[in-house]
Design a protein that fits this description.
Blueprint: E1 6-10, H1 16-25, E2 31-35, H2 47-63, E3 68-71, H3 74-87, E4 92-93, H4 99-105, E5 110-115, H5 117-120, H6 123-132, E6 137-142, H7 146-151, H8 158-173, E7 178-182, H9 190-196, E8 202-204, H10 207-220, E9 233-237, H11 243-249, E10 255-257
Parallel strand pairs: 1-2, 1-3, 2-9, 3-4, 5-6, 5-7, 7-8, 9-10
Helix pairs in contact: 1-10, 2-3
Length: 260
């Protein structure tokens, strides 16, 4: 089973930021990435619909014999992963906003969280937030519109910059010193965020932590591929326009259209 691929799915192209971290840490692991861009973003959708889509994505990856599945979507993690773990026997890795390190290290006692509506309104997010919010101001911001701009190839547009300035304003007014990115699309915003934020504000995303957890779970289940081989990495998207995802991955990997 160790040579079987790692499965990764997201509501779109954003989870490729997670794939990159996993591939850097585990370069010999085969992988299959599934981008459900036709249904992006998941954030505004209700819990039942998010669960339905997550099950569909999972079953696609299981049909491809994936040995472990990374739910590379904060919204899908917070709304569906508990059901997925009960329903299927393979290990699942989820994504949560990295509230804990921000809350433990803040000097100004104020942190900002930029996430989707689906993540911010979930029970899992509120439980984590409440656990680390004692004596700390947490400024939550629904990043409405960001995912769609990225999916449409407008990552560095003036519209994106204007939107980010609007969303960052209440955080800056609250004197945050940490900004937590609560969506796997958002790491692609880091170059623009660095320009817009004061230098002392640290930006945290979950990518490296997810990669480390993936490795740990593979080792625990004796699924780690220890052979030094050229890995096979497949990328599927259900939009005929594959250019945006291809641009985020670069020329090393090939993106294929697949209706699912």
């Amino acid at each position: 089973m160790s040579k079987q691929p790692i499965g990764i799915f997201d509501s779109g192209v954003g989870g490729t930021s997670i794939f990159k971290e996993i591939h850097t840490l585990l370069p010999y692991e085969n992988s299959i990435y599934l981008a459900d861009s036709i249904n992006a973003p998941y954030g505004p959708k209700g819990k039942d619909k998010i669960l339905e889509l997550s099950i569909k994505n999972t079953e696609f990856l299981l049909e491809k014999n994936c040995k472990l599945i990374v739910v590379a979507c904060n919204t899908a993690t917070t709304n569906a992963i508990s059901v997925l773990r009960e329903k299927y026997s393979v290990p699942f890795i989820g994504i949560e906003p990295a509230i804990k390190p921000a809350a433990l290290n803040t000097k100004t006692k104020a942190i900002g969280i930029l996430a989707t509506k689906g993540t911010l309104s979930s029970a899992l997010f509120h439980n984590t937030s409440n656990l680390y919010s004692n004596g700390i101001t947490i400024v939550e911001q629904n990043g409405e519109g960001i995912v769609q701009l990225i999916e449409n190839g407008n990552l560095t547009s003036n519209e994106m910059e204007t939107l980010l300035k609007t969303y960052l304003k209440p955080m800056l007014e609250a004197n945050i010193d940490y900004l937590v990115l609560g969506c796997t699309h958002y790491p692609y915003l880091i170059p623009m965020l660095i320009k817009l934020l004061p230098k002392h504000i640290k930006i945290i995303d979950s990518g490296l932590a997810v990669a480390k957890q993936t490795k740990a779970v593979l080792e625990l289940n004796k699924l780690l591929n220890t052979e030094i081989i050229n890995s096979k990495n497949e990328f599927y998207i259900n939009l005929k326009n594959t250019e945006v995802m291809q641009s985020l991955l670069g020329n090393k990997f090939k993106v294929d259209f697949l209706a699912f």
